[in-house]
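Subject: Interface between my chains keeps coming out wrong

I've been trying for a while to get a sensible model of this assembly. When I model each chain on its own everything looks fine, but I need the whole thing in one frame so I can look at the contacts. Pasting all components below, labels as-is. Any help appreciated, I'm running out of ideas.
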Amino acid sequence: MKRFLLAVLLLPGLGAHAATLPDTSAAAVPPAPRKWWRPTHLLLQTGGGLGQVAAGAGYALAKNRLETDVLLGYVPRKYAGSTLSVASLKVMYSPYRLQVAPKVQVLPLTVGAYVSYAHGIINDGVRGQYPRDYYWFSRNTRVGPLLGGRVTYLAPPLAATGQPRRLSAYYELGTNDLYIASFFGNLKGGLGFGKILTLALGVKADF
Amino acid sequence: MRSPTTLRRWFRIVPVVALLGLAGCDMLEFSPSDHRVPEEFTRLTEKNLAKLQARPLAAGDTLRFVFTGDSQKFYDEAEELVKSVNQQPGISFLFVAGDISDFGLARELRWVDEKLRRLKVPYLTVVGNHDLVGNGREAYQHVYGPLNYSFVYGDTKFVLIDTNSREYNFNHQVPDINWLQTQLASLDGARRQVVMAHVPPDNSDFDPTLEIPFARALGTAPNVVLGLSGHNHAYRIGEYYDDGVTYVNSDAFSEHSYVVVTMWGDRQFRIKRVEF
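Reply #2:
Try treating it as a single job with all components included. I did that and got this:
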């Protein structure tokens, strides 16, 4: 499953090299207008509390500095006690773009936030199970901040669409509302900040 | 071609990279409910019982242990508790009467264990309602072990039981009265018995249809001396069912207080509250 998704994401990148050969025809084709609903990128990631594997699509706005992604993640039962499907929404802002080589950009800083909903939680409460405000926290919905970075390879445009494409690998450090609450309840050093961090690694293809 | 010294220099960073890789794997969390933890944080009940049994108490010896509850999210307090308990002379182990975690997450159980493993004595737990929210039941079983269990140490048989009825939406199966009766039926060579649970039987989170059967199981079994519980974050002691069983509710980590229980003879005991 994971390999398949990875292959799907990487294929457009490989196609790019083939497309560069007939350079003149590529330049001759005018870029097809982009449908408003068409996502600007696909992504695949692991970790970050959003799934062992999570695949998604998203939109880049504000000259690619602002992105919003929707992901669907999967956690096998053997790791969580029940099979989880995780739906997530991420919003990220990347203010800086460093051109480190003709075709390579580095986005040193991405800040953002996510909200996720896990379907399949064993005991997330049913109607009438608890008195009002028995637990202040949700058992299936998490929110948290993200901080990350990215390396982007600028692939030549695909002949058929003329759209510029980018292939990126990214990392994100994150945490969630429950870990944050744990951290701020122990400011004498009982819980180190590093202990509440999670890591996500992913690839993203803009097309 | 690189010289051997350059190669050696490169190999020097291998452990650093491996360490970063390991830390990374640890951080690559699939979900907060993801309960993958290093092996050293699994089967803790079994491991801690083995540590306890490695230091046996001779028959007839006075037993002393520390009893507290609700470690949940109080990591600063856990450090102070460990310092204080490590100065208690002659104790055999520490009991945490449930709510090890606040959100039923494996990371929390691990954080608590990282504190309590610095105790000079082993510690044992019983599952609390906070340990059963979300996928906590699976996390607790993976990190600690069974939800109901019993053991004999010295002259005392301990029976630990899940009484968090509300987390099962009062399905009348929890606490498992049949299991409790079976366990309490035999002393297994001990002189007295002690039952520990998280939610005390007269609490609104305890299945009201099972309160009296639970109390009767304790009251009619051979020589049950104490019924220990947590949940209320407040110390309380009393013989609530007029059957010779003394119920003791512990303070919590948050209250900077625990009790030291000393037991001898057939039914003698002393409870001492300690502030830390």
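Reply #3:
Confirming on my end. The CA atoms of residues 4 and 10 of chain A lie 10 Å apart.
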